Amino acid sequence: MSLAAHLPVLQVVVPLLSAPLAVLVRHGGLAFGLVTAAAWAAFAMAIGLWFQVGESGTVTYHIGSWPPPWGIEYRVDRLASFVLVLVSGVAAVVLPYSRACVGREIAREQHYLYYAMFALCLAGLLGIVITGDAFNLFVFLEISSLSTYVLIALGRDRRALAASYRYLIMGSIGATFIVIGIGFLYLMTGTLNLVDMGTRLSGVENSRPVLVALAFLTVGICLKLALFPLHQWLPNAYTYAPSAVTAFLAATATKVSVYVLIRFYFTVFGESLVFHKLPLPEIMLWLSLMAMFGASAVALFQNNLKRLFAYSSVGQIGYITLGLSFDSVYGLTASVLHLFNHGLAKGAIFLLIGGLVLGLGRSGGGHGQPTLDRIAGLGRRMPITCLGIFLAGLSLIGVPGTAGFLTKWYLILAALEQGQYWLVAAVLLSSLLAVAYVWRFVEVAWFRPSAREEAGQDEVRHEAPRALLVPAWLLVLASLWFGLDTSFTVSSALDAAEALVGSGR
Amino acid sequence: MTPETALVVALGLPLVGALGIALAGRMPNLREAVTLLTALAVFATVSQLLEPVLAGQRPGLMLMEPVPGLPVAFRLEPLGMLFALIASGLWIVNSIYSIGYMRGNREPHQTRFYVFFALAIGAALAIAFAGNLFTLFLFYEALTLITYPLVTHAGTAKARTGGRIYLGILMGTSILFLLPAVIYVWYVAGHTDFRLGGILPDTVSPVVLTVLLALFMFGIGKAALMPFHRWLPAAMVAPTPVSALLHAVAVVKAGVFTVVKVVVYVFGADTLAGQTGWLAAIAGFTIVAASVVALSADNLKRRLAYSTVSQLSYVVLAAAILAPLSLMGAVLHIAAHAFGKITLFFAAGAIYTAAHKTEVSQLDGIGRRMPWTMAAFGIGALSMIGLPPAAGFVSKWYLVSGAMAQSHWLALVVILLSTLLNAAYFLPILWRAFFRPLSVEAQAHPHGEAPWPMVLALGLTALGTVTLFFLPDVPLALARQMVTLP
Hints:
The complex is a heterodimer.
Chain A: H1 7-25, H2 28-56, E1 59-62, E2 73-76, H3 78-105, H4 111-130, H5 134-153, H6 159-189, H7 194-201, H8 208-224, H9 233-240, H10 243-269, H11 271-277, H12 280-300, H13 305-325, H14 329-362, H15 378-381, H16 383-397, H17 403-417, H18 421-446, H19 451-454, H20 466-484, H21 489-500
Antiparallel strand pairs in A: 1-2
Helix pairs in contact in A: 1-2, 1-4, 2-3, 2-4, 3-4, 3-10, 3-14, 3-20, 4-5, 4-10, 5-6, 5-10, 6-8, 6-9, 7-10, 8-10, 9-10, 9-13, 10-11, 10-13, 10-14, 12-13, 12-18, 13-14, 13-18, 14-16, 14-17, 14-20, 14-21, 16-18, 16-20, 17-18, 17-20
Chain B: H1 3-23, H2 28-54, E1 60-67, E2 70-75, H3 78-104, H4 110-129, H5 133-151, H6 157-189, H7 206-219, H8 231-234, H9 240-267, H10 269-272, H11 277-296, H12 300-321, H13 324-355, H14 366-369, H15 371-385, H16 391-405, H17 409-435, H18 440-444, H19 452-470, H20 473-484
Antiparallel strand pairs in B: 1-2
């Protein structure tokens, strides 16, 4: 068989193997080279898979040539290939950024461990997306979660430890719920293959164990994707983790969990059970609305820039789950699109905040948190960095011409289609909250005088290092580019949604 | 150059110019030369398009298609032609004026100012050329964001507050009202292209039609229909050249331009027949109420801002009357008000630069020290009142004729009342300037005219106001085309 036929397994194996290799070389620079090469290879393979899916439909791969319900199956459909591109693409951009950032944020002798953990996390996330096997999915979920806990704990701020511990507890509860849910499903169907599970469930959908499994899985996954009010772990984790880690997690981890939720709802349980027989859409709708308004409003009152955008993430996840709750092609398109668009914008923002933090460290005052007082006047010291945050912020608002606008467009179409005019108003009102918190940053960065200016001196221009700016601006430009040329994003999301919604189950 | 190429060049030049201005930032003379050359080149390119448009051509192009059936596309028609001509033509004059003003007042961050100015003109041209509602909306939002740094140029707490109101109202209305309206149009019509006679299918019920019209009219915050007019006086915190070109011409005209576009090309005058009574009433109220506020405003720029609010609603009123003659009046008023109001703002800025005076009550006897400025101010004021020989007379003529043709008595009363009010708040300024003796305080601080580039600029626009009265051929031809040809 040619190499192309093995892409699905290589997609996971390459980053997975780079992790022990990074530990073996025990050298920060070499480990960086290995893991970065693996991430770029993964990115290339994800793009390759995307094209394969486009040409020949769903790609399946049987590990060890064992045919599906017995062996583990890797399965790449439109949705999976789209998420793979996002995850591996963000990793490929964040890793070169890490090189410049990690040196200042993590002790030197731990560098190779950082890269090893990063590789494990990436492999875990890619594995979750690609696998078609429920237990394998759980294993990858644990791989990515455990490495994430370590990555967060590497943050230099001592509060990172507490944040990581909190996430460890919450994440483990989530993972336990997920494995309980999978256990119940295995009990009822006798299979672990997700597609097979879906077929076998069709007779016994209403039995109590299946409903219990649905409940456990929903709560467990929603914990991982930080659906309001299960988001408690997220703000601290994002705030105190090293900047590169925050960017990578914000862009990928919660998004992959959304993917898992979509997979279980549409492939395993089926639309009719989840959306028609149970009041799940209503619950999800209201939780989404609370996230959109509650978390965004909390974001408004944060004094730490990282926390502000962390709460904004909780709010933006509300849009994703809102789209999901419509159970329509437009709604799911909006969800899938936003998973991608928000990933790009938030990744860019957190990368650039990392640059701001570095700039703060340079001006004395040590290595600290980007509180609003400290970033005052930075728009004059680091205009390119701040402009990037602003432009990515426009995508969070959903200004036309940015990627975020398309999400809003499809979300509103979905609401119009179902005649829910009040939801149109809700989506638009919540965008105003995004305007408010993005503008809070704008006013502080450009209008407030910096400490140096208050002392009567002129602000000197001092940008973040180019090694930080280039990767971050790649994401900024991507979130603008995908607002205008959407042949990749919208077609992928529409295809994925059309394949999942209304498939008769 | 084919018309299509000219379209691309006219859209691209301001961007190139902005880049050039940024690069030449260290050398002020070169930087200003780049601004002036770009402005001249843009105007030359835009005027090349006039002949083909008058000959009935509708050049267009499509850039990209973010959502299937929703392209970013441009298509030039008579109304857009007129708006583009005004914006690009007055940009030249305004650039001359800016040089005098920014240097005369030693403003900081001049490079940033010129860069965003060029970008704002680019966005205004894109609005003028927009071929569908989506493209228009895209650049409408872009214009709001681009003008924000210009409004808050001073960087003071006052500028920040002004910026908040500016952004809050413009973004708030456009996100809350305009965006759902645009999406709804796409949802029911399947596209958002501008077509004469409207694009809404017949299935849309009158109730929905009214709601949609309300969403559009209040969503287009740049048209400053009450109660969403507060951003315009708030924007007066900006340097005067910004108030002059953007908040008397480019931004506010983009607003009323969108109003006319939506009424003529999205709804269609026939579809709306008999459903615009409330709109005429609100526009009429805005005209009168804003004039009353202007009457009591002592700050000159504030008085001019409320006068603008009032004059913008003339266009909305004209659009609401729906008669072909009044629609022509709306188009002509976009041109007439642009020339008159920019002259008035130029004069206000000249007074501030030369005499450091901002209040109407400080202007006693200033006409003797700044005769050119105040003479130009007089011509602008005549145009606002609607008296010959100023351009405002022509547009008002068509407006009144249209209202009479439709027997729209409310509109006639409003126009009459507002004419009186306009006279009541402009003529006292002239009386003060020319007939009152200089105050003791002013006698102690002698000054002459403002720097010559400013006087030249305001002389040119005053001349334009008069010329438009005697030779209104081009705007008239374009206005006539709009109501007859697709």
